[in-house]
Design a protein that fits this description.
Strand order of the largest sheet: 3-4-5
Strand content: 5-15%
Largest sheet: 3 strands, antiparallel
Helix content: 40-55%
Distance between the termini: 71 Å
Structural class: mainly alpha
Order of helices and strands: HHHHEEHHHHEEEHHHHHHH
Number of strands: 5
Radius of gyration: 23 Å
Length: about 300
């Protein structure tokens, strides 16, 4: 039983063949499982207590191959998901008789507040950032794209489409609009309307290659014809910090986008659709209350007790 077998299975199922694998593994998923062969006495045929210890003591990779700081709770939860997906596949494929993950508790992730960059920070980013960072800022803020989606976006993904929605009376309305066809996490595809700001920015890149490569971004060595999403995420944050004195990340642009969509009509479902979230709970974690919304809401509560 190998990680390679897991990845080969995923490539087979991507062609449409039936699969018993609950989820499609990626390189990042596989890399989370591979170290287990060295840290657990039984390798991939591990015991639940070994996996629990692996999650509790895991560390990020530091400089020169040395162990870095311990995994954050969110990292542990993500790695737990990867391990569970692997062992579910192994049992379904007949490689293992049982999954040890049944005795492993999922690490809890503390609730965090949304962190959209401020309007002023966005103004500075648009005013002073050079390419490819300016393009990435526009796509994150006005299309809500993740770094992996920015890295893939190419001219072939733009087209005229029909957007369907229901108006205030519940009547189904169809509107022709230019859209971006986005391939997001897990290979899920969706279409997003093109904002004028996005259209203006993309007009600067008339070629056929992915936009981020046309703007000067680095190509992905493992996925020819795409930008390098990890490089984009890491180097954008460094550029913003060192060159613009702004401690922000590209993903905060996605939070700004989702918060802005929500503020128009205070409609979480609209924000969920715009952000392409499967769960509305994810959308709640993206939408920040701005301009004293919470204070105004509390103070506006009616006083119904005359004695008060």
């Amino acid at each position: 039983m190998t990680i390679t077998g897991w990845r080969i299975s995923s490539r087979r199922t991507s062609t449409g063949a039936p699969s018993t694998a609950p989820k499609t593994p990626s390189r990042s998923r596989a890399s989370c499982c591979a170290p287990r062969t060295a840290t657990c006495p039984h390798g991939l045929e591990a015991l639940d207590r070994e996996i629990s210890a692996y999650l509790a003591n895991g560390r990020v990779r530091g400089k020169n191959g040395q162990p870095g700081k311990k995994w954050a709770d969110k990292n542990k939860s993500t790695i737990y998901s990867h391990l569970k997906a692997f062992y579910d596949w192994a049992v379904a494929a007949g490689e293992l008789d049982f999954s040890p993950m049944g005795g492993v508790r999922r690490p809890k992730v503390p609730a965090t507040d949304p962190k959209p960059w401020t309007d002023q920070q966005l103004v500075e980013l648009l005013r002073y950032a050079c390419q490819p960072w300016r393009l990435a800022v526009v796509l994150a803020s006005y299309a809500g794209l993740r770094c992996c989606e920015i890295a893939r976006l190419a001219p072939e993904h733009r087209r005229m489409g029909v957007v369907r929605y229901r108006d205030e009376t519940g009547r189904l309305v169809e509107v022709e609009s230019e859209v971006l066809r986005i391939t997001g996490k897990g290979g899920k595809t969706a279409e997003v309307e093109v904002h004028d700001r996005v259209r203006q920015e993309l007009a600067n890149f008339p070629g056929t290659a992915p936009y981020i490569l046309q703007a000067g971004g680095r190509a992905n060595a493992r996925e020819p014809g795409q930008g390098d999403a990890r490089w984009l995420s890491r180097e954008a944050a460094r550029y913003f910090r060192e060159q613009l004195d702004l401690r922000v990340t590209l993903h905060q642009g996605r939070h700004w986008y989702t918060t802005g969509v929500y503020e128009v009509d205070q409609d979480l479902r609209a924000a969920q659709s715009a952000a392409r979230h499967t769960s509305i709970n994810s959308t709640v974690g993206y939408t920040a209350l701005r301009n004293g919304q919470r204070r105004r809401g509390i103070l506006a509560l009616p006083v119904l007790d005359s004695a008060a």
